[in-house]
Each structure stands twice: as C-alpha cells, then as structure tokens.
Amino acid sequence: MISKKHSMIIKYLTDKEEYVTAEELSQQLEISVRTVKRYIQDLNYFFYDYGAEIFSTRGIGYKIKGPAKEIRRISEKAIKYIEGFQIDDSTEGRITKIICTFLNKGHANAEELSDTLNLSIASTNKLIANVQSILKEYDLSIISKPFHGSKIVGDETKIRGLILNYAIKSDENNSLEVRLDTVSKQEIKEIEKIVTEALHAGNIILADKDFSILLTRILISVARVRKNCFIEKNTFQESYRLHNYDYIKFIMNEIGKKFDLTMDENEVIYVSLSSGIIIYDYNTRMKLTVDSKDVVNKFVEEVLAEIRLVTDLDLTEDSDFVNALVMHLKIFINRFKAGISAKNPLLKQIKSKFPIETNLATIMAKKLKEEFNVILDEDEIGFITMHFGAAFERRRSSSGKKVCIICHYGIGTSQLLAEKLKQRISNINIVGTYPVRYIDIALKADIDFIVSTVKLDKKDFKVPVLYIENVFSDEIVNELHQVFQEKEERKKIFQATFNKNAFFRVKAETPEEAIKNIGQAMKEYGFIDESVTEMVLEREKMSSTEIGNLVAIPHTILEGSYKSVIGVGVLEKPIIWNKEEVQLVFMVCFNKKESYNFPMFKYLYRFIQDEGEVRRVIKIFNFDKLMEVLDVK
What we know:
Blueprint: H1 4-16, H2 22-29, H3 33-47, E1 53-57, E2 61-65, H4 68-83, H5 91-105, H6 110-117, H7 121-136, E3 141-145, E4 149-153, H8 156-166, E5 168-170, E6 176-178, H9 185-201, E7 204-205, H10 208-226, H11 245-259, H12 265-275, E8 280-281, H13 295-311, H14 319-337, H15 347-353, H16 355-372, H17 378-395, E9 401-406, H18 411-424, E10 428-434, H19 439-442, E11 449-452, E12 465-467, H20 475-497, E13 498-506, H21 511-524, H22 530-542, E14 546-548, E15 550-552, E16 555-558, E17 565-576, E18 581-591, H23 600-608, H24 611-620, H25 623-629
Parallel strand pairs: 9-10, 9-11, 11-12, 13-17, 15-18, 16-18
Antiparallel strand pairs: 1-2, 3-4, 5-6, 7-8, 14-15, 17-18
Helix pairs in contact: 1-3, 1-4, 2-3, 5-7, 6-7, 9-11, 10-12, 11-12, 13-14, 13-16, 14-17, 16-17, 17-18, 21-22
C-alpha cells in the first residue's frame, strides 16, 4: 500500500509533466535521495496494474509514462490520499492529533497524549516541542498547570485560525471533516440546512467554495461558544459592517435558537469578516450590477484603462467580465483583511495555459497593493487570470442547444468554460453557470445538456450529463460535438421510423395476442403485411423481448420494399410477458437495407431505462407526448 509520501511523488511527477531528478524530489519531500529511489521502486510495482511506469533516464531524471487515462486515474488516487481526511501516523499526522486533543480537551498531560498516540512519553514530548514551534506562528503558546496538564493559550481569533488549519479539513469537492468534539455530525447537517434554507429564501447564491468557507466559520463559532471561549469586544478594530452582515446575523440567530446558544454581535462580525463572502441574487446573476460609485469598481475601471493604454486591449465594455472581477476582488479584500487565503487547485494549469492573461492579472495585483494595501499571492493571481481568460474567450460569437454548467471552482473558471464552449461549438446557448449546491435551481431552467466539473449521478437527471475532468482540455468540446451529432441522428431516425398512424391502444391478454393485434393494426395502414407479423412471432419464440420497466420490444429484420417502422402499442392493462409485467410494446420492423436506422435500438433502450417516463407515456397515451419524451420534437 502506498503512503502519503508515495502519493506526493506521484502528484509532483504528474504536475511537472517533464523529467524530475531524484535530488529535486528529495528537496520537495524532505527525504533522502536513497529513500526517493526506494519509493520509485515501490511505485513501479503499484503502477504495473495500470500499464504505467516511472521511467528513469540517467542524467535526466524520472517521468511517468503510460496510457493517459490510466495516469489520470493514478493521479486522482494520489490526490485523494494527500487531501484525504484520515490522519496517518506520520510526524505531521501525530502533530495534528496533539493539536486536536488540546483544542477538544482544553487541558491534557503527556500521559494522555502518549496514550492517544500510542507512543512513549519521551517520543510524545519531542512532538510537543514541534507543536510549540507551530503555535509560535499563530502567536500562541502552551502553558502548564499542576494537576491539570497543559493547554493552548492566546488570542481567541488566533486559536480559531489554528482550528481552521488543523481541526477542520476540506477536500476539492468542498466536503468537510470536523474534528471538534463539541459539534456532532448530525448538528453539522442541521446547521448546513439552516444556512442553505436562509440563502435560498433570500435568492442568494454562493460558490461551493464560499459556502464551505462560511460553514466552517459558523461551526467554529458554535464550537467555541459552547466551550465558553468568546471573542473580546475590541478585537475587531474596523467599525464598518460588511454588506453580508445582516444575512449572517439572521443565520446566526437561527442557529442560536436551534441550539440554545447566545450568538452575540462579535460572533456575527467574526463570521462576516473571516468568511469574506459576497452576497448576490442568483435571479440577476447573469447581469451583475455594480455601484458606479463603489471604490473597487472605480479601481477596476482605472486599471483596465491603463491596460488599454499599454496593450491596446479594451475590456471595459465587457460588463460580465467587469462585474465578475469587481465581485471577486471584494471577496479577496475581505478575506485578506481576515487573514484568510484560498488555494487555487488549477494554478499550475492556469500559469501554463494563460501566460498573457497571467501578466495582466499581475499588473492588477501590483495596482491593488498600491491602492488597498493588500497582497495577492500566486493563488489569487491565478483566480484573477481566469477572469481575463473568460474575457479573451468571449472576444474571439446565440441561440441553439441549451447547456447548463455546474462548476465547483468559482465564477472566473465558470465563465472561462462557458466562453470556450460558446466559441468552439456553434448553435449553443449557455443558460447559466451554477455551483453544485444550487443544482436544483439549475434544473428548473429549460436545458438540453448539463456540463459538470464534478461527477454527478446521471440517473438523477432527465437530460444528458457530461463530466469535464480538465477545464482547459478540448475533450469536452469534442464530447459535446458527439452528443449533438447523436441527438440529430436520433431525431432523424425516430422521425423516419415512428408514425402517428402506428400508435395504438391495444387490448391483449398474452404476448402473442399483443403482437398479432399490433401487427393487424399496422397492416391496415399499409406499414407491414401478415408475413412480417409471423416473423416477429417466430423471433419472440427464440427469446423473450421483455426488457423491464413495463416495456417489450418484439422485432424482426425485413427484406423487400417495406420501410423500417416502429409500431407502438399501449396495452389497456399490464400483462405478464414472460416473467415481468409489460404495458408498452415497441414492435420494431427493421429493413436491413436501411442500416443507417440501426442505432434506433440504442436510443430506445436509453428511453426505457427511465421507468417514470415510460409510465408517463402509458398514462397520457399521446403520440406527440411520446415524441417529446424521446426528444424528437
């Protein structure tokens, strides 16, 4: 089984996409070169099952080679292990256990900690020394009290910062692992529900990342209030309240009532400032409006004007870009003031794919420091780059296929993806981009397809769902082209093979009677003759054509002049076909000369998988409704 260090080697090699020396890996992982070589040997045993290998070239280094799909799978496993919630027995894992023990118990002595870690007291004391070094970074310390043990002391906001980094973990899908004993899993669900309902009631949308940030601050507030650890009144020097204050105050009051807690103004301000979220109405989100007198908006206008002078590139008329950028900068400024940073999971790809846009974002970062005395780190510059990337795509264009984008990365990435699809695919209309948490709102829109950056259960949706693994790849463009082509093919085939005059209400007690009655009705309209019905019956004797969900598809292959046709019989009541009940019969008569119609079976099977749609067709008994359900109209 591979360890976290093994996983870190995998991630580093896949991120670099070039040869990496043992010395470089040694420095990155803080292990010896000999250990690196041993880990590489371990990994090649692991890679064998995937048909991949870490190749070694003397004087150049290591590089992963193998099928691209399998390398992606390996990388995904490594990332999950690195970002996973389980605390391992590494030094880092043991330090995390010590810090969480202090945070949960208050006081703890060396004996208790050694029992928790299953280590000797001497080894535990060495780890406590490491913990003390970490606490200095937070301006915190450990003090001891006779007969009680040791505890972490310092400013309450600093302790909450420590909790954020050690007692609450979030993965790339914004799932949370909370290591605080004072908040149960059930209570976390209830708090999440209160927050969600409050936001929905106010038509408020938050990116999944921002929702996760807000939820963690609320959970910390609840946990600390329960331990009677409060923020002092004069902690927050700024007298202004962020625009999100009233919403957060309402949420905190609801949580206080639910759990019988007093959430005072300091707790509201803490959550408001430390979450740094920007509230906006999702009903108008495609036309985000900004106050022209707003200082951030004026700053953006000035910087874009300067960029225009230098590059002759005018982005000031792109209101989507300007409004989204202003909103993002407000979020960042709030976070910076609260001492919160946000990791950009796409940073490496952004830097390699968008060098020009990165330069423009860097210009904005320098101006931002001058104007607001805030510093954008590399991750934040990456986020700004995405907004420029979306604007560039928009410049390179629409009614057509209606596509909804579900994206968990943020506004900038969502817009970039939307613009890429619009520019690369003709006849496409992006009806909206939504965080995963707001997918129920997205589904209320009239859409033909969903494109998602997270894996969704396709069975839960009535429209095709396409998963995009890499937002910078053209793979999703190619896949959408294929889906669009399939839809046109399906429409063409069904229009040619379904006929309003071959849609019947049928009375039958047995499968044979059902086939004969449908065949007779089709014969009266000149679609087939008696010999075709006999061929269908002969085929049925070979193997039953019931396929579940109340459907049977008796069929035969024709020769001669008859065109391919699908007769539809809705039985007055369900009958036992072979082993299962059937009430909807598709009698398929396929002329082998019309090979281009053969995919009809594939498309019929897709429809039949949804029992709800099948029952709807049976209940309504309407040919036009059947065509609508089959997505032919």
